[in-house]
Structures are given as C-alpha cells and as structure tokens.
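Lab notebook, bench 4. The sequencing result for the construct came back, and we need a structural model before the next group meeting so we can plan mutations. Quick request posted to the team channel:

Model the 3D structure of this chain.
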Amino acid sequence: MGFVTTEVQGAVEIITIDRPQALNALNPDVLNDLKAAFDAVDQNAVRCIVVTGAGEKSFVAGADIAAMSVMTKAEGEAFGKMGNDIFRSIETFPIPVIAAVNGFALGGGNELAMSCDIRICSENAMFGQPEVGLGITPGFGGTQRLARLVGAGMAKELVYAAVNIGAEEALRIGLVNHVYPQAELMEQAMKLANKIARNAPIAVQACKKAINEGLEVTTEEGEVIEEKLFGSCFETHDQKEGMGCFLSREKPKPKAVFTNN
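Done. Here's the predicted structure in token form:
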C-alpha cells in the first residue's frame, strides 16, 4: 500500500491516508489502498479504527481533479461506483470507525469522513462539497449522507452553493462531534477510540448494526432489528461476564475478539 499506512496501538488501529504532497487527494490507487487496509484489519484483535490524513494541512482534500479531468462519462460513473462501494464498506464495517479530520475535508474527503461512525476535527478543519463548481455532482455519497447528517435544507445549501465551512460551523450543524486544537486531535481520537475499545465488542458491534440499519427503515422496523440484536447478545461471554461482574461488583474481563459465543 503506497498511499495508506496502518498502525495498531493496543486494540485501536490507525489508518492514515499518506499522500501529503497532493493533500491526500483520492485517486483509484489511494482508494484501492484504503480498501486493502480495511480488508487487512484483524477483527479478532482490533476494536476501533481511527482514520486520518498525513500532514497538518489536509485530511483528504477531495478526489484527484487531474485524474478526473480526462475521464469519459463511463469512466466517471465507474469511479463514482468505486468510491461509493469502498465508503459503503467502511460505513458498514463491523468495527466502529472514527474520522480524525486534520485540515481539509472537501469533496471526497468530506464523503470519507461521513462514511465513518464518528467525526472529530482540529480547529483548522474545513468541510465542503464543492463539486458543482467543477461541473459535477458529489460522487461518493455526498448527496446522500450529508442530508441524513445535517438535514436536507442545510445539505442542499452546502451542495448547491459549494459552500465550505469551518470547524465551529461543522460542530454547530452536527457534522462533527468535537473540535480540538490540532496538536491534541490524535490524542483525543485515541482517547475516544480506547473508551469504545474497552466495552464489550459483541455489544458494540450489534449497536453499530442496529443504528445503521435502523436509519434506513421505519421506527417500527428498526425496533425489530434492535430486538433481534439485543437477543443475540444473550448467552455470549460478554453478556455473562458483564452482568455477572455487575452483580458481584467486579470488573468485567470481556474476550478480546468478535465472536458470537
């Protein structure tokens, strides 16, 4: 993987887009490396993932315009499908994913961040979907996830007007959860990731599935999904250990793997 690096710290894996000379812009090679990094995650050991960008200027500045400028209609559609498929796989990845946004998250960068479960950012972060200024639409899920996260009206304003917003505005509209000084961003990302990693992995995995799938159906249908996942946690090691330790006032010792037993 020439454009993506990985590092495991305890139960947390850090996946870094490493193309700083191009502000970590996404081209097919970067996307393939990102897919390979997620495919290689050891789901028996890793409990949370942090995605970030190399350098201090950019998380991901967008898709590579030079690469897109010569694409045919068919090639553009295929590129959009490639990005959408990979970002959807991140969104539905069993393990929680945190985007630590350090600088620009524009176009495909914002779309990558939105495919993660949680977004936190540095004070110099900048978000936006500027594609209409280039004569195209967002292509990696921007028209879909942005409206779900911040509401249709705000999403339409940002997309139609190609407006970029800073960290505090992103926090105000609910696009990010927290804003930190840049020097503290990765420390705070790891702190949150480790909080998640300390909890029962089977339950966390089930919660992610319940929330994601529930957002795509009615409340009543979502409650059925929740009931089944709630039930699936029973008779697992984590449930027995967690409830047993609660009753005995001991600290639980959950298994460090994703299993169903």
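Confidence is low (pLDDT under 50) at residues 256-261.
Will bring this to the meeting.
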